[in-house]
């Protein structure tokens, strides 16, 4: 038996929210005037920011009702806004599409193709931001329920080889959720005595059509697995995978780098003058739920106090 049906439905709902937001945000980018890209995008970016924030909020808002139904009430009410804020400032994410497009143009590509590259990045960033807001809320909500002792990765097909390899894997909360850009995997809460055993990568593999197998693992990978190789031997599991915590640090470092080079500071200042752009700004840097779990070393009461302190639950 795989993860319980509600956990699978929860994953599907999250994936749909991320996809819908990404489609809407992409449409805003596509309405940018190609002849005046910077001015035109900076004027539209606050609209995109608001869409992303709304998508994140609706994703994070589903955590509480789902966990209430699955495992009962937590030690406090989840504040979905805190999970959204924990995903950080949107300004870098909204300026990168422009940078990417300029970079392509400077390398001689057409404006149309360059704008497509910007759109692809923006869509990826949007999906990831919505999924992360939801997963941060889920993790905070699970830590706030001491009867939940660990979490299991929920993978829905189609999925990439790395996620298939991690399907059904059980983690302590102190281990951040490994994800890659566009990753739509979620978590299922696990309590002692939960009678279900999650799907194994081999089970997931067996459910895939030959075409899906080739897309995820490549021709050589499929041949190796079919010849009896372990999936773990065929897949480089950590490549491109990161936790929210590590990703947040990367974004911060990149932001500091671009500030020094002058690009970021001037555009961010311009962008933040636009009415509505305050939406994009995160409040305070905060500890991620996974960091709270790590710092409190299994002391759930202490973890819950910190979740309250950082505003994840009230
Ligand atoms: Zn994946």
The largest sheet has its strands arranged as 2-1-3
Q: H/E element string?
A: HHHHHEHEEHHHHHHH
| End-to-end Cα distance | 36 Å
| DSSP helical segment count | 13
* Helical/strand content category: mainly alpha
Identify the bound ligands: zinc ion
Q: Give the overall pLDDT as a whole number.
A: 89
- The percent range for helix content is 55-70%
Beta content comes to under 5%
CA-based gyration radius: 20 Å
Number of strands: 3
Major sheet summary line:
3 strands, antiparallel
Q: If you had to describe this structure to a student in words, what would you say it looks like?
A:
By secondary structure, the chain is mainly α. Among the domains are: 142 residues, no CATH class; 65 residues, no CATH class. Helices cover 63% and strands 4% of the residues. The longest helix is centred in the first third of the chain and has 35 residues. The mean pLDDT is 89. Zinc ion binds next to helix 6.
Short description:
The protein is mainly alpha-helical. 63% of the residues lie in helices and 4% in strands. The two termini are 36 Å apart.
């Amino acid at each position: 038996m795989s993860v319980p049906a509600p956990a699978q439905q929860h994953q599907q709902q999250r994936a749909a929210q991320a996809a819908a937001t990404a489609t809407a945000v992409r449409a805003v980018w596509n309405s940018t005037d190609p002849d005046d890209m910077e001015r035109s995008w900076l004027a539209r970016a606050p609209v995109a920011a608001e869409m992303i924030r709304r998508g994140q909020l609706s994703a994070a808002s589903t955590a509480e009702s789902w966990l209430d139904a699955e495992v009962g009430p937590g030690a406090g009410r989840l504040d979905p806004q805190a999970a959204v804020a924990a995903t950080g400032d949107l300004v870098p994410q909204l300026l990168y599409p422009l940078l990417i497009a300029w970079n392509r143009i400077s390398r001689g590509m057409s404006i149309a193709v360059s704008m497509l590259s910007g759109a692809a990045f923006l869509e990826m960033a949007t999906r990831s931001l919505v999924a992360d807001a939801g997963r941060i809320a889920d993790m905070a909500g699970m830590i706030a329920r001491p009867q939940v002792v660990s979490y299991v990765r929920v993978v829905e097909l189609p999925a990439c080889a790395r996620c298939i390899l991690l399907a059904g894997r059980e983690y302590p909360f102190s281990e951040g959720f490994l994800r890659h850009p566009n990753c739509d995997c979620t978590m299922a809460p696990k309590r002692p005595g939960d009678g279900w055993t999650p799907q194994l990568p081999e089970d997931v593999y067996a459910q895939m059509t030959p075409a899906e197998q080739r897309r995820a693992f490549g021709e050589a990978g499929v041949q190796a697995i079919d010849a009896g190789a372990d999936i773990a031997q065929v897949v480089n599991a950590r490549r491109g995978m990161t936790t929210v915590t590590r990703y947040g640090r990367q974004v911060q470092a990149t932001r500091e780098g671009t500030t020094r080079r002058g690009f970021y500071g001037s555009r961010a200042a311009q962008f933040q003058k636009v009415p509505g752009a305050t939406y994009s700004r995160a409040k305070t840097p905060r500890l991620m739920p996974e960091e709270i779990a790590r710092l409190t070393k299994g002391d759930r009461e202490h973890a819950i106090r910190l979740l309250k302190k950082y505003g994840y639950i009230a």
